Amino acid sequence: MAAVPTDSGSRPAAGARFFCTAGRGLEPFLMREVRARLAATQVEYISGKVFFTTCSDLNMLKKLKSAERLFLLIKKQFPLNVSSVSKGKILSEIQRLINDDPESWLNAISTWKNLLELDAKKDKLFQRAANPPKRKVEENDIINAKKLKTKQLQVLQESGECSLEKQTEEETQEQGDFLTEREKSQEAFQNDVVKAADAKNQKNLTFRVSCRCSGAIAKTFTAQVHLPPKEVGRITGIALMKQFGWKADLRNPNLEIFIHLNDIYSVVGIPVFRIPLASRAYIKTAGLRSTIAWALASLAEIQAGAFVLDPMCGLGTILLEAAKEWPDVYYVGADVSDSQLLGAYDNLKAAGLKNKIELLQVSVIDLPLPSESVDVIISDIPFGKKFKLGEDIKSILQEMERVLHVGGAIVLLLSEEHHRRLKDGDQSSIPLSSEGSHTGEPSIKKCLKPGGKTGTSETVSSSFEASSQECLDKTPPFGSLVPVECHKVSLGRTDAFICKYRKLHSLGL
Amino acid sequence: MKLLTHNLLSSHVRGVGPRGFPLRLQATEVRINPVEFNPDFVARMIPKVEWAALLEAADTVPKEPIEGYEHDEKFLRKMHHVLLEVDVLEGTLQCPESGRLFPISRGIPNMLLSDEETET
């Protein structure tokens, strides 16, 4: 990764507070990730969202791999009181979200602008470093270019303004996949920053509100007081216009406001990126959901110099996510299908990872590899009746076990059916690994109810979290493979299990 | 297919067992891909390499890893080139015991056995 010259002292002083949406079951992974990647503090998981504080800039935030979308927090408070099913009262509750505390709105927007401006500065410096203007490069030129850079910075700092030159196509050079990736997201950033610049006088800010309601509150809203989410959005919009003088723009606003009302909280935030984090610039055709693919890889203990195999790689999503995060590793993907391998090949090419990931056309139950030659196996076991006769989950696991080194890890995504099949397997005399199942997450934070009921706290956990331990308890060892962790995750319409095994000893001993 | 990969592959034709290694490589189309040199990574691969098999597949390989190879940049660069930059796009891999041929196409070896061949 090219080194980007930074000016120290331009990072946000104190941390800013964010929240992410995440697929059900992925929240523990996200909590671990924000701590590790962003040195996040005050990390909480409440009912489908992970809240955290961090000083990281947009560059680092953009790297989050297990989150769906990222928002800057404006406010989080107790849920709306809908006990009195009166439209008028509910409307005034909604307006209070804005009017009670305008400071927090303005602070959040100021933070948001700072983040975007800081990113634009870095972008600009990076542009100059990576794409020098086309002319003869002589000593003097280099010195002058440096002077120009510093001057530019000073100008930026003094005026507080931030105007981006349009990136000319002629200046673009092929500099490897990193730059390509940046270019793709460049447009999104440029748009965001141009908008921040327009908004230097906050009165000129244009905005759009999107509102989501869930839980019992949603039912009350729609069924009893005829208040669909769009209406809530509209009312919020009017209140914002009155309070701050902003103008609504439904097509192309500077600022997006996101409101989520449910029975546990009312949350308001600003989406930080136009495109969801889960949508990766480097993946051409997604197979498995990228967030889950990354989560699988994150459990696999991938070390530098390891040999990592995905024997049912499909379009290669897991290997792509792994290779982006852990590059100094030897990756091999295998599949039986011509079309899948062609797709994987395309994906590798598009991501610039053809040199990092090798492809084989082989069958997972008959791997042409010597025993104990692989360090890590990660795979998404295809769901449904795609298997030929005799090719069941047990034969698959058996072959994986054979080629794996002792001490090596296997991380699989299993359908409920596969997981059930394994549960019925013969119990080995090997005890469960003492490593335990917890990912070391703190207990779920409490959330106060309105009406000042201090002292009574409500632990909010998803049914998924509770079942992870249960799921591990029900996963028996498989030969010399001992279950280490088990997490239930949502794939949208269905649920699945992320199961990790470790090979304890050699076969045939 | 890189030579590092060839070094790992073993024939799984029935009854062949360990005599199915190494596969005899016949390359009809080879491309040299420049790959960023990472000495640490190459040093980690060296102990995993089956040297005899590598010698068979490539001609310009030192007879064996020299002592202190981890710090010998010249040696590591040579190995980096052989293991990671030589890419066999078209060719065949042959089982030394049964003679069975496995094709390599677009850099991807096809080692699927037919249903009859997989029957024990």
UniProtKB/TrEMBL annotation, chain A:
Q: Which UniProt keywords apply?
A: Acetylation, Methyltransferase, Nucleus, RNA-binding, Transferase
Cross-referenced Gene3D superfamilies:
Vaccinia Virus protein VP39
Q: Where in the cell is it found?
A: Nucleus
What does the function comment of this entry state? Answer: Catalytic subunit of the THUMPD2-TRM112 methyltransferase complex, that specifically mediates the S-adenosyl-L-methionine-dependent N(2)-methylation of guanosine nucleotides, most probably at position 72 (m2G72), in the U6snRNA of the major spliceosome. This modification in the U6 snRNA affects the constitutive splicing efficiency of introns that have suboptimal splice sites and can impact final mRNA levels.
Its assembly, as annotated, is: Part of the heterodimeric THUMPD2-TRM112 methyltransferase complex; this complex forms an active tRNA methyltransferase, where TRMT112 acts as an activator of the catalytic subunit THUMPD2.
Q: Which residues cross the membrane?
A: none
Q: Which GO terms describe its molecular function?
A: RNA binding; snRNA methyltransferase activity; tRNA (guanine) methyltransferase activity
Where does the record place the region Disordered?
A: 424-460
Signal peptide extent: none
| Enzymatic reactions | guanosine in U6 snRNA + S-adenosyl-L-methionine = N(2)-methylguanosine in U6 snRNA + S-adenosyl-L-homocysteine + H(+)
Which species is listed as the source? Puma concolor
What cellular-component terms does GO give this entry? Answer: nucleus; tRNA methyltransferase complex
Instruction: Please name the taxonomic classification of the source.
Output: Eukaryota, Metazoa, Chordata, Craniata, Vertebrata
- Family per similarity comment: Belongs to the methyltransferase superfamily.
In this chain the Ribosomal RNA large subunit methyltransferase K/L-like methyltransferase domain maps to: 280-417
State the InterPro entries in the record.
Answer: RlmKL-like_Mtase, SAM-dependent_MTases_sf
GO annotation (BP), single = tRNA methylation
List the biased-composition ranges (Polar residues).
Answer: 427-437
Kindly provide the name given to this protein in its UniProt entry: U6 snRNA (guanine-N(2))-methyltransferase THUMPD2
Primary location recorded for the protein, binned into one broad class: nucleus
Origin superkingdom: Eukaryota
From TrEMBL, chain B:
Give its localization.
Cytoplasm, Perinuclear region; Nucleus, Nucleoplasm
Tell me a GO cellular component: perinuclear region of cytoplasm
Q: Which family does it belong to?
A: Belongs to the TRM112 family.
| Record-linked InterPro entries | Trm112 (IPR039127), Trm112-like (IPR005651)
Species assigned in the record? Puma concolor (Mountain lion)
This protein is called: Multifunctional methyltransferase subunit TRM112-like protein
Q: Which CDD domains match?
A: Trm112-like
Biological process, per Gene Ontology: rRNA (guanine-N7)-methylation; tRNA methylation
Give the molecular function GO annotations: protein heterodimerization activity
Sorted UniProt keywords: Cytoplasm, Nucleus
